[in-house]
Amino acid sequence: MSNLIIGLTGGIGSGKTTVTNMFQALDIDIIDADIIAREVVAPNSYALEKIVEHFGNNYLTEQGQLNRAKLRSTIFSSQDAKQWLNNLLHPLIRDEIIKQTKAANSNYCILVAPLLVENNLLHLVDRVLVIDVEECTQLKRTLARDTSSADEIKAIMASQASREQRLAKADDIINNDGDNLAQVQQQVSELNTTYHTLAAKL
Question: What residues form the membrane-spanning segments (predicted)?
Fold first, then answer.
């Protein structure tokens, strides 16, 4: 069981996956809040049944999966719908995060949560690691990898915590603004040593 839980976060396009993969290569257990969020609404799940009950059958695809695009546009345009969905999903996601962090075997584990600050999950972690980049870098990277337009990406960025809000919560920061992966790897390596040391003291 991991004694130390590190919350890894950052805005869209900041390079969370790149950094997470580097920690994983060091045999650190990773708990991914996005994967958990998808699993709690899997076909035949309690949450999916409740969503269909509340919003209707047209929120299912022909394969019986959640129609994410339709749900996303509904909650983007209705605060009440968003609140209802959050009230349903957040406790389920939180319980599963706690279960998975307790089951982790590495000295410390990492909870990857893009919305760690926004969804108030800070109490689930011991330290916060922010992957920090300039906002123009976020936009450029996301445009390069996604089909979304610049306006859509800016809207996502505006809905997330600001760079300043994230950094205000950070215990540790990895600067990922350049294209130098060796520098990022070096920062990961140093933090890995720090985290093992901290875990040993618990």
Answer: none
Q: According to the annotation, is 11 in a ligand binding site? A: no
* Angle of helix 16-25 versus helix 181-201 axis, rounded to 10: 60
Q: Determine if residue 101 is labeled as part of a ligand binding site.
A: no
Determine whether the annotation assigns residue 2 to a binding site. Answer: no
| 23 — pLDDT class (breaks 50, 70, 90) | very high
Say whether 15 counts as a known binding-site residue.
yes
Q: Which residue has the higher pLDDT, 5 or 180?
A: 5
Sign of CA dihedral 156, 162, 168, 171: positive
pLDDT given for residue 171 in this prediction: 98
Domains and their CATH numbers in the chain: 1-28+106-202 (3.40.50.300), 35-104 (3.40.50.300)
Backbone dihedral region for residue 113 (phi beyond 0: left; psi -120 to 50: alpha; all else: beta): beta
